[in-house]
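Hi again,

Forgot to attach this to my earlier email, sorry! This is the prediction with LJ64HWYM bound. I've pasted everything inline since the attachment limit keeps bouncing my files.
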Amino acid sequence: MKYLSTRGHAARPEFCDILLGGLAPDGGLYLPESYPRISRAELDAWRSLSYADLALAILSKFITDIPAADLKAICDKTYTAEIYRFARPGDDAAEITPVHWLEAGKLGLLELSNGPTLAFKDMAMQLLGNLFEYVLERRGETINILGATSGDTGSAAEYAMRGKHAVRVFMLSPHGKMSAFQRAQMYSLQDENIYNIAVTGMFDDAQDIVKAVSNDAAFKAKYKIGAVNSINWARVAAQIVYYFKGYFAATRSNDEQVAFCVPSGNFGNICAGHIARQMGLPIARLILATNENDVLDEFFRTGVYRPRKAAETHVTSSPSMDISKASNFERFVFDLVGRDSKRVAELWKAVDAGGAFDLSGSADFARIGDFALVSGCSSHAGRVATIRKVFEQYGTMIDTHTADGVKVAWDCAGSVPAGVPLLVLETALPAKFAETIREALGREPERPAELEGIENLPQRVELMAPDVEAVKRFIVERV
Ligand SMILES: Cc1ncc(COP(=O)(O)O)c(C=O)c1O
Ligand SMILES: N[C@@H](CCOP(=O)(O)O)C(=O)O
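Structure tokens for the complex follow:
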């Protein structure tokens, strides 16, 4: 499988190169030259596979430069019930992403947050850790990962990469904007290959720094800079798998359809759903849920993509979705405009210069219906009421991001054809957001025993202004 850049760069690298490379040299994002179409026979054969075998079947379509036996060993090592061990009592951890039905066969949670850091990021990041280790060892190379997090990517990456001798992680986070639990998960790690940098800004400032450093070709090559954010295609590829697994869990035959509601920020998770649908998975509807930072909801309602400035970005109680410049949205727009990379490059010229674009009235936006995507947004009051209602009605405690998903799923239920099951992606566990759980339910969320008291551990973090040169200096001094 060869990959192209959304902005038209001439090179056509294969998977292992883009795994290490992250952003394309022209600032675009990598996508497969074409999406593999899954035949009915394949879908039938995949229905009964374990998660690891399903991951192998799907990833083999995208990764053709790792021998099959090695890829199988990587998938087997990654997707185990020991790693994804925090399933709800009664739900089967061996399924890796079990469905927890709120209303049997109608409304369920796709449990994606049973991994070591209690968020869906572990689903892809554990795989990335093993892929990096494999490729770097085979090539005799090392990598310095530069990432940005609004709360969950950082800890998932650090847990996946800690102690790996060929990898260093430099993780930028927005100072004071994440929950106490999220901060403790990252900053309490004392591993020598992990560096946490809190920037005095928002997540988008951190993400801009990552992109600026990655776009400095000389620096990137000299200091072997890699990416673990969902700008890295490997993240999106790994996330495609659980849409298939969720589909098989929610249906009895491949004649049926399913709908997914996805709490969204950077558009990585739902981008994987969009690609699963392009591959032929029978998805009737993809519902995108935002919090108060509703830049994506605005686009799907109006055709206008208007990233907000830091001062207009809200600090909310679903902090991991406090994102106003959604990096993976470029991948979706590439498909929306018929894979016209010139057009994408023009549109993102405006975005990268701090502007917006308006596709309303265009022939492209007229085709938006083909993508089966609708959207809605939530607010603090909405998520608190949803956490309360789900707990009272179903006895299930959900986190603030999943609550945004459930709230929007209810709002958009009318867009789902009758009889089609609707799965809300559970993107984090409530233990990460105790303050809002207390507000909603007047009680503490449960947390795994092994994570008790992490807030009391000593923390190691560097405070910095959102300054590209300062971040580069920090890296140079440590490699
Ligand atoms: C808990 C949680 N929910 C939802 C999201 C949004 O996912 P995405 O950025 O892939 O749209 C994130 C992070 O991005 C997250 O950490
Ligand atoms: N919500 C994310 C933000 C980064 O998203 P990514 O999927 O692009 O890594 C976080 O928790 O850090």
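Residues 149-154, 229-230, 265-266, 268, 320, 327 surround LJ64HWYM (ligand 2) (CB under 6 Å). The chain has 19 helices and 15 strands.

That should be everything now.

G.
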